[in-house]
Structure formats: structure tokens, C-alpha cells
Design brief:
This protein is α+β, with helices and mostly antiparallel strands. The chain contains six helices and eight strands, in the order αβαβββαβαβαβαβ. It is globular, with a radius of gyration of 22 Å.
Length: about 220
């Protein structure tokens, strides 16, 4: 009788332990999932070829791939990038109407106009697709330069010089406009702090981007 009782006790303990581990694993897995409202993130990595993203289509595919891996692939994702030339594209016109929310459901902006006036993009809220903070100016390495090729109002630049690294196909000579997701620049003025149009990059290679505090990262927005 004692042996049966001991066996039942052990079996019960094992079952309870198993259930505990399963519940803990499920809870941990749930905690690692983005909010169902997530519709904005900064890419956790670039494509490794500087500002050569394979054009704007390649950048969109990068956003979609990272979102899918993070569990948010049911949405349609677009990179916040402008292009120049006869068929120029404005970043603000290709990201949907909003609202947009971060990994943990924090509001980024309610609509396109708010996004380009007073938004909630900063180092603590504008995280990557995994919910991790993206390095800012006071981190090492600094990766706060986010590729945009855009003016402060989210449009393609009309400047004569290159502002999009050849519409995101160059990894050598050229330049691209970048923004600072952490809202810190070399000066305390608004252009230096701009999230989408702070300054041109030093070039288009991975080394050039790193030279001013970048890693070829992008802003990704869900259009739906």
C-alpha cells in the first residue's frame, strides 16, 4: 500500500512540475510576442550592404521579413523611404493612414499629419520588431541614424545632390538623408533632433553609415 501511495505521489509531483514548466514556457512565449496592435518598428538590423537595399522594393521586403519573423507578418509592411527623380515617391504617402503603435502597443502617431508634427518617436518607445531598444547617441555602437531620404514633412528632396543613395541602390559614393530615432544630435536645435531628416550620411557604404552613427536601419510602418 505504501509503495502505491509513494508512486502516486511521485506521479502527481511530476505531472504538477510538467504543468508548471509548460505554463511558464507558454507565459514566456506570450511575453515575447508583439502587441496585436504593433504597426511600427525600427529594423533590428540592416541588409549589410550600406544603403544598397535593393531599391525601395528590397527595403519593403526587409520590413516584411522581419515583421513575419516577429509574429506580425499578417500586416502589409512598408519602409519609410522616399525616392527622387521623375518617378519620385514620398515616404509619407506609402505608409498608410495610421494610427501606428510600437511593439508593446504604445502610440506612435494617430495619422500622417501627427507623425510629421508631434509624434512619440524616441529611444524608449521606438523599439525594434523584437521589442528591444535601438542604440542611441550615447550608446556604443551608436546606431541612431535611420535611413529615410526624406525632408521633415516626409517628402522626397528636390536638392540636386544625392539624398537617397541612388534610390537605395548604392553602397559606395553618394549620400542619404537620415533621421535620429533618439532625438539627439550634435546641437539642441530641431533639425539636429529630427526623427526623419537630421543630416546627410557621409556616404552609402556600411562603413560610411557607421561613421556618423548608423547601421543601415529603417523605420517600418504597417499600411493596414
Amino acid at each position: 500500500m505504501k509503495k502505491v501511495t509513494v508512486a502516486k505521489t511521485v506521479a502527481t509531483a511530476v505531472a504538477a512540475l510538467s504543468l508548471g514548466i509548460t505554463a511558464s514556457a507558454l507565459a514566456q512565449q506570450a511575453a515575447q510576442q508583439p502587441s496585436p496592435d504593433m504597426s511600427f518598428f525600427i529594423t533590428s538590423k540592416g541588409l549589410g550592404k550600406g544603403a544598397d537595399l535593393g531599391g525601395i522594393a528590397g527595403a519593403d521586403a526587409h520590413c516584411q521579413s522581419l515583421a513575419t519573423a516577429a509574429g506580425a507578418g499578417k500586416r502589409t509592411w512598408r519602409a519609410y523611404l522616399s525616392t527622387t527623380g521623375s518617378s519620385s515617391v514620398n515616404a509619407r504617402d506609402r505608409i498608410g493612414k495610421g494610427p501606428w503603435y510600437s511593439y508593446d502597443g504604445r502610440l506612435i502617431a494617430r495619422n500622417v499629419d501627427e507623425l510629421h508634427n508631434i509624434n512619440n518617436i524616441n529611444r524608449l518607445v521606438a523599439v525594434d520588431e523584437k521589442g528591444k531598444t535601438v542604440n542611441g547617441r550615447f550608446d556604443r555602437p551608436n546606431t541612431h541614424d535611420i535611413l529615410t531620404g526624406s525632408t521633415p514633412d516626409g517628402k522626397a528632396s528636390t536638392a540636386t545632390e544625392d539624398t537617397t543613395c541612388g534610390n537605395w541602390t548604392k553602397s559606395g559614393a553618394g549620400a542619404a538623408l537620415v533621421g535620429h530615432h533618439d532625438r539627439f544630435g550634435l546641437k539642441p536645435d530641431e533639425p539636429s533632433r529630427s526623427w526623419n531628416s537630421s543630416h546627410p550620411s557621409r556616404g552609402c557604404s556600411q562603413e560610411n553609415l557607421a561613421g556618423s552613427g548608423g547601421a543601415g536601419l529603417l523605420y517600418c510602418f504597417a499600411t493596414n
